[in-house]
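Check the record.
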Amino acid sequence: MLLVRWHVWEPLAWEEYMSGAISVHHGEFGRAALYELDKPIITHAHREAHLIFWLDGGAGRVRIGDEVHPIDRNRGVAVSPWAPHNFEIEDPANPLITLTLYVKPNWFLEQNRSNDFALAFGSARIDVTTVVSSWVNRLTSLLMDQESSDLFDPFLFETTRQCYEQSWTCGQRDDTASRFGRGFLDFRVRRSIGLMQQRFREDMQIDWLAKESGLSRPHFFKLFKKQMGITPNLYLNTLRAEQAIDDLMGTRSTVTDIAYDLGFASQASFTRFFTTNVGIPPSDYRRVAHIA
């Protein structure tokens, strides 16, 4: 276990940061963010493992499948890769400030020398113990500094490790994540995935995708969700959201140009898509994000 001397964390003046995104940090691990949220986030999915912790403000909850998991000072939420989930705010007048982590399974595998490629959590509930709280506070302090630090990766790894191990003390594997990268996909599903990865910037119709895969629309939806754990629409939205983030971080293209490049009819429609899938407007994301 990593041992680091650290100053006692003091509550931060959150009222100074009421703009949606406080800080976003990208690195080899994935990304970490401090968000101020007063609106729900629609059902979506990530290829990364996902951890959400309450920092200040009101309460929220994450719906994963049929289960609802509160987020408050005592409980965080762990979402396995590709598990469909949404985010709900109890009181929009009382925004919620969170530490949100998106951890790449490959990175965790390399750091942990684990054989669990999927980084699937055993339970979605994470009790914010004294140990977990201390690592959350350390990561939050580094994000508030908004500067690169050699401590960030080890801190994030230890936070993830603590939560991962806790999730298996009483949990059962999330079957959604276990389907990814472990079994053999039907060749028609593989074809549809290839088409989406190649052409997600286009105005792609699901009827066309089903036809190209040699299936009727109902059969295509049923087979895709059975094998992938998510619908074709969610998978396509994930590809577009990931590319949007890459474009915002890696290019000087305007938000309008990024919108058109991704097949949106207008900047407004792209901004709505990004905000409801990521949680904040694309302009806010670009303004506060930085790469290690």
